[in-house]
Write a structure and sequence with these properties.
By secondary structure, the chain is mainly β. It is built from three helices and ten strands, in the order E-H-H-E-E-E-E-E-E-H-E-E-E. Strands 1, 2, 3, 4, 5, 6, 7, 8, 9 and 10 form a ten-stranded antiparallel β-sheet that branches. It binds a DNA duplex (12 and 12 nucleotides) through strand 4, strand 5 and helix 3.
Length: 173
DNA sequence: ACGATGATGAAC
DNA sequence: TTCATCATCGTA
């Protein structure tokens, strides 16, 4: 089986290009000496230009600083006081955009997958790769455009017109 | 349908 | 320094 670790170049593009392309790729997490790989089946794009649903909507802050660190950065944050959410930063440095990983094969829900893969604040602002223990692999799964369903993003009703944009990408079974 | 639970950002 | 808000989930 062909295996290729996605590098910085893959993430150094528009978030609207990268988010759908992550479907079918494998998220690999190494902890306690074991590697756990699961296929990504659901993503959401944040930060395209002046996205009012993005954490970067009010400029750079202590929380969203990782979004400005450039492609391949890991952005993990706490939401609702109890859930960690995983984002992969894309596009060029100082241009905040990120892809929220919402679901893996067999693990649906952005907070569930971080719990299962033991992803927490310790990974925040680290870089994707074997050194950090979290990376993404292309294992040769081919996804047709017709296999991708686009829908509005979840939980962002407050964002006005931005709440309606079809920036959520789901892999059909 | 709703409570848990705490960091965040904006107002005062 | 206070307050409403949240990229959610489990239980009812």
């Amino acid at each position: 089986m062909r295996k290729k670790v996605l590098d910085k170049k893959f993430f150094d593009r528009s978030v609207l290009e990268v988010a759908p392309e992550l479907l079918g790729k494998f998220l690999v997490r190494k902890y306690r000496g074991h590697e756990h790989a699961s296929m990504i089946v659901e993503t959401e794009a944040y930060g395209a230009a002046h996205d009012k649903a993005s954490h970067a909507r009010s400029g750079k802050t202590a929380r969203n600083a990782p979004m400005f660190d450039g492609p391949g950065t890991i952005y993990v944050y706490l939401t609702y006081g109890m859930h960690w959410l995983l984002n992969l930063v894309v596009d060029k440095k100082e241009y905040p955009s990120a892809v929220l990983i919402r679901g893996l094969e067999g693990v649906t829900g952005p907070a569930r997958l971080t719990k299962k893969l033991q992803i927490g604040k310790g990974l925040n602002r680290k870089t994707l790769g074997k050194a950090s223990g979290l990376w993404v692999e292309d294992r040769g799964v081919v996804i047709e455009k017709s296999d991708i369903k686009k829908t509005p993003r979840v939980g962002v009703d407050y964002a006005g017109v931005w709440a309606k944009k079809p920036y959520r990408f789901v892999l059909k079974k």
